[in-house]
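User: quick one, fold this
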Amino acid sequence: MCTLAKRGNLFILTLTGDTKKDQEHRLNPDLIAAIRSALSEVKSQSVNGSALVTVAEGRFFSNGFDLKHAQAVGVKSGSFDAAGMELLRMVDLFRGVVSDFLSLPMPTIAAVTGHAAAAGMILAMSHDYVMMTSSRAVMYMSELDIGMSLPDYFTELILAKIGSPAARREVMLRAAKVGAEEAVKIGIVDSAHDSAEEVFSAAVRKAEELAARKWSGAAYAGIRKAMYPEVCKLVGVKIEPVAPSKL
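Assistant:
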């Protein structure tokens, strides 16, 4: 599922898997709960000057919601409607992951070393910075291709983070598979790198650079929330002012 390691003030959240199927890191209730548990631990251990890097094992950063899990729920209940309801439940559960990232009192960096599709792309975009490999990865909002509308908070996050209407159209209304260099051009990704190893190294360097500033975690989280008020509203995050600890 996932592991959490600590290097000084840096937290490394790794999505893990023993098999190729597991390494798609499809978001089902168990993985969502594991990520939220890890983020809760990060938050509880955070200090001014902390930072988080998220990375994944294998060819995928995350391949989105676990549709086979939803189908299995439908088969078990003998109802197609049950499968759809389980998918909607996962959409609602994942809302909490986005909420957690928006509320985390530290800079966050996604090291996208493989494909990030649908909810997996939203997982990456929920971070403050995104580094991506150009060797074997695409960003891909697949909902149009599978006949599903975008959850409201997906849409608001994309609107908030991708500035160009033409780029948003490519991502949302064309279901374009966007490689790393193009993702940099349209503002989804901060930097592209030749290999997964270089992506992770760049993410750690960025995390160390930001952690060295030793910013107030409360202030950092407060400013982030204020940058994305509509997303915060949809995922249940309250925006409150933060005053300096010393005046």
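User: anything notable?
Assistant: Residues 167 and 186 are 6 Å apart (CA to CA).
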